[in-house]
């Protein structure tokens, strides 16, 4: 069931292999949390404007959110967040200005439903 959202700065449009990242992340989610591969779903969202600190630097960001049914340990969630961040660099073109990469793994609200 993992619902994965990857928000990224518009400046990374041509420099971030989003599909490749999603396909590499799905097995990591399975290994780390016991989710099923067919249940992994990733969507990417380009942010129109990204402002970091005082807005003066030529920097970008990527933020990954993984939402799961409750029941995973805090250790498993932390391990997945760390792995999601570490995996990202391999899908960015080399030589880019700084890219701030972060991830969070959270439980879905009990009201979540799917068909």
UniProtKB/TrEMBL annotation:
<dbReference type="InterPro" id="IPR014347">
    <property type="entry name" value="Tautomerase/MIF_sf"/>
</dbReference>
<dbReference type="GO" id="GO:0016853">
    <property type="term" value="F:isomerase activity"/>
</dbReference>
<protein>
    <submittedName>
        <fullName>Isomerase</fullName>
    </submittedName>
</protein>
<dbReference type="Pfam" id="PF02962">
    <property type="entry name" value="CHMI"/>
</dbReference>
<dbReference type="InterPro" id="IPR004220">
    <property type="entry name" value="5-COMe_2-OHmuconate_Isoase"/>
</dbReference>
<keyword id="KW-0413">Isomerase</keyword>
